[in-house]
Amino acid sequence: SLDVFDTCLVRKVALPSDVFYLTAVKVAAVLGISPIQAFIEDFVAARANTEQSARQRSHREDTTLDEIWELLALAMGWQVHETLMNCELEAESEVLIPVYPIRHIIRNARKEGQKVFFISDMYLPAEFIRSQLRKHHFYENEDELYVSSEIGQTKSSGNLFRHVIVSEHVKAGEITHIGDNMDSDYVVPRSLAIDAQLFPQTKLSRVEEKLSQSIPD
Question: Quick one: pLDDT at residue 158?
Fold first, then answer.
């Protein structure tokens, strides 16, 4: 069992929210306006705020990209959001790269006859995530993908892991989960008797964090 973002796939930006800056430039191009700094800053702030609002309004444990962009279009005064929403998917696709040690772990697991599945707390569509895993040679036809945006349950609550246990017809102790997040990929699954292994190699170092904070937008 593998976490996806910052485990199998990592973004070529310091922070996940940095993708919003790239998205803003693409949105400006679609709208036919100049990507001036004021527009970009307004967009990034609105995108972050509407994600938070979408989660608060949701009756499920996670929201979806479509719900986020519905609120974003309303906040920005746009009539439609589907075409513009694709700008974010394009930006995500452009910055995602594979984590090779994890790919090696998956290959060895398959050689040993183990079932491989991916679990992600993520608002992005499951089909998009699956396509990126395929693109970077992680996902095969016999694999499964469980995403909080689609299922409405999260790893952080433990409910997505419980969903996987039922869906895969396995016992918790038969699962080995690997991920980068101390809480949702380690503490929570271990509390459910899942063999969890932390993979922190994709985290920014202290030097990298300081550099990212010192570089102007």
Answer: 97
Strand 96-98 versus strand 2-3 pairing type: unpaired
Residues 3 and 71: their CA atoms lie apart, in Å, by 28
Work out the average pLDDT over 162-169.
97
Two structure tokens written together for 101? 């040690």
Which tokens in the block code for residue 113? 């006859």
Contact assessment for residue 10 and residue 99, using Cβ atoms and an 8 Å cutoff? yes
Q: Tell me the whole-structure pTM to 2 decimals.
A: 0.91
Measure the CA angle with vertex 150, ends 169 and 17; round to 5°: 125
The identity of residue 154, as a single letter, is: T
CA separation (Å) from 8 to 94, 149, 157? 16, 18, 21
Tokens of 75: 């906040």
Average pLDDT score, the chain: 92
Six token digits for residue 7: 């485990």
For the record, the structure tokens of 167 come out as 């869906």
At residue 80, φ and ψ (nearest 5 deg) are -130, 160
**Three-class SS of the chain:** CEECECCCEEECCCCCCHHHHHHHHHHHHHHCCCCCHHHHHHHHHHHHHHHHHHHHHCCCCCCCHHHHHHHHHHHHCCCCCHHHHHHHHHHHHHHEEECHHHHHHHHHHHHCCCCCEEEECCCCCHHHHHHHHHHCCCCCCCCEEEEHHHHCCCCCCCHHHHHHHHHHCCCHHHCEEEECCCHHHHHHHHHCCCEEEECCCCCCCHHHHHHHHHCCC
